[in-house]
Design brief:
This protein is α+β, with helices and mostly antiparallel strands. It has seven helices and nine strands. The chain has two domains: 15-85, Four Helix Bundle (Hemerythrin (Met), subunit A) (Up-down Bundle), CATH 1.20.120; 95-255, Heat Shock Protein 90 (2-Layer Sandwich). The strands form three sheets. The protein has a five-stranded mixed β-sheet with strand order 2-4-5-9-8. Strands 1-3 form a two-stranded antiparallel ribbon. A two-stranded antiparallel sheet has the order 6-7. A hairpin with a 6-residue loop joins strand 8 (234-238) and strand 9 (245-255). The longest helix has 35 residues, at 15-49.
């Protein structure tokens, strides 16, 4: 009995590899189409907002749709990036980065959160803040954390985004703690509802098992954890008197100039 010929490389691919490649191609095509939809939507949004007396319900619908498109794009990107980030050999590529511009740019993309008026947003970021960081990963971490806060904050609640650079020695939990090292501290908080205690143990895992045994995926926070670890940093959950949920990423950010 003859067997089927092997591919030209001489090695038959495992089913898991074929599925991963097909998923990556599908995600790539979906991302391109979503990017086109978002660009067209932004054009319509800017054009319609120039009309005086526009029905507020139309403005609200535009904002919600734009936020949904951004969330879908983040989900698709997470699918492809997680497969790459799970490789233990993948590391961040730090370069001198204008952190202020990056963070404020992300917040502009999440403008619908503010436009709806249902959530109070506070952004604490110095006018000038530069750090040795991987800008693409930092942008994705910020996007995911802000999107997560937006999804789970109550109507009329608050979201706070803060970023600063601190000495490594004074930053608890930073894994970069070399003498003279700096740490970028990015914190995104929302006023609730809070995360139940039973969900906190596996919050940053790819798969989460609920109390009733159901399994769910946690792509956004799982990606953030992988991206932080690729920097040699950490991701942690905390809370305070004003915010029931605070996610804080601590990333090595170079050394202070002499």
């Amino acid at each position: 009995m003859s067997s089927s010929p092997a591919p030209s490389g001489g090695r038959i691919k495992e089913p898991q590899t074929l599925v991963a490649e097909a998923t990556s191609l599908l995600a790539h095509d979906l991302n391109n189409q979503l990017a086109l939809l978002l660009a067209n939507h932004e054009f319509l949004d800017e054009s319609l907002r120039e009309i005086e007396g526009l029905d507020p319900e139309i403005v609200d619908t535009l904002s919600i749709t734009q936020a949904s498109l951004q969330h879908m794009m983040a989900l698709v990107r997470n699918i492809t990036d997680i497969a790459r980030m799970e490789d233990p050999g993948v590391r961040a590529t730090p370069v001198a980065t204008d952190v202020t511009r990056l963070v404020r740019g992300v917040m502009r993309e999440h403008r619908p959160l503010h436009d709806r008026g249902a959530v109070q947003i506070q952004v604490d970021c110095p006018d000038v803040l530069r750090a040795e960081i991987d800008p693409l990963l930092l942008k994705r971490i910020t996007h995911n954390m802000v999107a997560n806060a937006r999804r789970f904050v109550d109507k009329g609640g608050k979201v706070r985004v803060s970023v600063l650079v601190s000495d490594a020695e004074a930053t608890a939990g930073a894994s970069a703690g070399r003498p003279g090292g700096l740490v970028l501290v990015l914190s995104v908080a929302n006023s609730g509802p809070g995360i139940p205690p039973e969900r906190r143990d596996n919050l940053f895992e790819k798969y989460r098992v609920s109390a009733d045994g159901r399994v769910s995926r946690g792509m956004g926070l799982y990606f953030c954890r992988l991206a932080c670890e690729a920097h040699g940093g950490t991701l942690a959950l905390s809370e305070d008197a004003d915010f029931t949920t605070i996610f804080t990423a601590r990333l090595p950010a170079g050394h202070r100039a002499a």
